[in-house]
Amino acid sequence: MSENMANKKTIGTKQKILKVSSTLFSEYGYKATSVRKIASEVGIRESALYNHFKNKEEIFLCVAKEIFTTPFSQNDSDIKESALKGKAFLQKFAMQYKLLTFDKNNENMFRLLMIELFQNKELREQFMNEFHNENIKVLSEAFFIMMQNSLIRSADPMMVAYEFLSTLFYIRLQITLLRFDSGSTTNLSTQFEKHVEFFWESIRV
Asked: How far apart are CA 39 and CA 54, in angstroms?
């Protein structure tokens, strides 16, 4: 087997481990999901799994990182191009957030992460860096560009980013809590779009 093929196989196995782990974590929880169970579901020996991850916590943190990712690229030119679309930028951001919220596997992992945040310091740091800080960074840069191009009123772009993101996060949390008790979320399904409309009207020039 060539080195290139071996690398592809390694990457493929690693991604499969993360995918299987995400499903198992969301279904059984962190504590009840063992490395042995993950390896069995992937179809590899437990010892082989340690060639990719040193322990269960590392797998969990990698899965969490994918859940925490921002909907947008960190490339400055991408942010600028998207931000110049103004309201459409916010609609796209909110729609990605909505899709993540109503994705069953993602929702279950989000619920589990909310529990584990209070028990795992490294996870808390990752949440702040990968989710909170990165989303605020992308949004504040976008709002600054909109201000420079007179699409929205001048203000502190970071505070505007906080205002926009906090409502999205609250809607996501509310939906997660309702679904945890098998409550109806029908009346919340359009809240993401309504938030964008309300928010845009409050900041546009």
From this structure: 13
Closest CA to 93 of 186, 176, 193, 162: 193
Averaged pLDDT, 36-45: 95
In the chain, the largest separation of any two C-alpha atoms, in whole Å, equals: 61
Is the pTM here over 0.90, yes or no?
no
Q: What is the mean pLDDT of the chain?
A: 88
Whether residue 103 contacts residue 96, with contact meaning beta carbons closer than 8 Å, is answered with no
Question: How is 54-87 classified by DSSP, letter by letter?
Answer: SSHHHHHHHHHHHHH--SS---HHHHHHHHTTTH
pLDDT in tens, 72-118: 555 666 788 889 999 999 999 999 889 888 887 778 788 888 888 88
- Residue 177 backbone dihedrals phi, psi, to 5 degrees: -65, -40
Q: Smallest Cα–Cα separation from 85: which of 146, 164, 138?
A: 146
All domains in the chain, ordered by first residue: 3-61 (1.10.10.60), 69-203 (1.10.357)
